[in-house]
């Protein structure tokens, strides 16, 4: 078996090899297509991650409010709903079911619906990490914040959350890497990301090994970049000598 890496230099229309491997004058090579697909993958993943971090942090924090049982129940319901429904099913619901129930969603592009589905799905997982991080803090930190005159909001903002996020950076790293992996479900609603490129390119070129090796390499590069960025953040945010107590700082 011989490998033919020139497949990426072929024009997607006439299969002629382009000398520079990049199309000109409107022509597109498989390398152009793959890099464009990588851009879509990164875009879906980053936007979904931002949404997941915002919602997950909010929901996770609300689940630790000691004197708001109804809000805690709503937060728990959010986590149970979005964590226990498979992501592909959620994509299907967002793309096919919800637009029929809510006409305002009919004009929303599939790209945005995938970002919402992936962001909501991951927000449930991040909410659980945030809740665990807050509850891992010594109970006295909450009381100390209230004792100096902080409101509940200020206690979370200046005392609990900064410490909790330092604790949960390692699991957040895993969730960030997972969101790039899970972005592959976008192919189900025809978003031209890496998985869709790989499926179509290998059918057109019959060079599945080369195509999938290249796509896998791009996924590895993305995951490694995330790992290094999060490792840098963890190192910069680390508090020397901090020992996390088993007492619940946000628990009941």
UniProtKB/TrEMBL annotation:
PANTHER family: GLUTAMATE_ASPARTATE IMPORT PERMEASE PROTEIN GLTJ, MEMBRANE COMPONENT OF AMINO ACID ABC TRANSPORTER. Keywords: Cell membrane, Membrane, Transmembrane, Transmembrane helix, Transport. PROSITE patterns: ABC_TM1. The keyword Cell membrane applies. It is a multi-pass membrane protein. Belongs to the binding-protein-dependent transport system permease family. HisMQ subfamily. Gene3D superfamilies: MetI-like. It holds the Pfam family BPD_transp_1. CDD domains: TM_PBP2. InterPro entries: AA_ABC_transptr_permease_3TM, ArtM/GltK/GlnP/TcyL/YhdX-like, MetI-like, MetI-like_sf. Signal peptide: none annotated. Residues 38-230 form the ABC transmembrane type-1 domain. It is found in: Cell inner membrane; Cell membrane. The chain crosses the membrane at residues 37-60, 81-98, 104-122, 211-233. This is Amino acid ABC transporter permease. The lineage of its organism: Bacteria, Pseudomonadati, Pseudomonadota, Betaproteobacteria, Burkholderiales.
């Amino acid at each position: 078996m011989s490998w033919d890496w020139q497949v990426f230099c072929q024009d997607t229309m006439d299969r002629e090899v382009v000398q520079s491997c990049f199309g000109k004058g409107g022509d597109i090579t498989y390398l152009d297509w793959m890099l464009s697909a990588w851009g879509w993958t990164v875009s879906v993943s980053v936007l979904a991650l931002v949404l997941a971090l915002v919602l997950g942090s909010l929901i996770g924090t609300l689940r630790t409010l000691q004197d708001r049982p109804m809000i805690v129940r709503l937060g728990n319901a959010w986590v149970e709903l979005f964590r226990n429904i498979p992501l592909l099913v959620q994509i299907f619901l967002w793309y096919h079911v919800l637009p029929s129930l809510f006409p305002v969603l009919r004009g929303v592009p599939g790209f945005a619906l995938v970002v919402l589905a992936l962001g909501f799905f991951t927000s449930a997982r991040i909410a659980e990490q945030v809740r665990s991080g807050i509850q891992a803090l010594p109970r006295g930190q909450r009381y100390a914040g209230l004792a100096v005159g902080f409101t509940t909001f200020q206690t979370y903002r200046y005392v609990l959350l900064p410490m909790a996020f330092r604790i949960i950076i390692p699991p957040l790293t895993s969730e960030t890497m997972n969101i790039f992996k899970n972005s592959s479900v976008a192919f189900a609603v025809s978003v031209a990301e890496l998985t869709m490129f790989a499926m179509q390119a290998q059918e057109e070129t019959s060079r599945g090994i080369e195509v999938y090796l290249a796509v896998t390499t791009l996924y590895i590069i993305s995951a490694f970049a995330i790992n290094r960025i999060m490792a840098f953040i963890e190192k910069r945010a680390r508090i020397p000598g901090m020992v996390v107590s088993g007492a619940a700082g946000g628990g009941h």
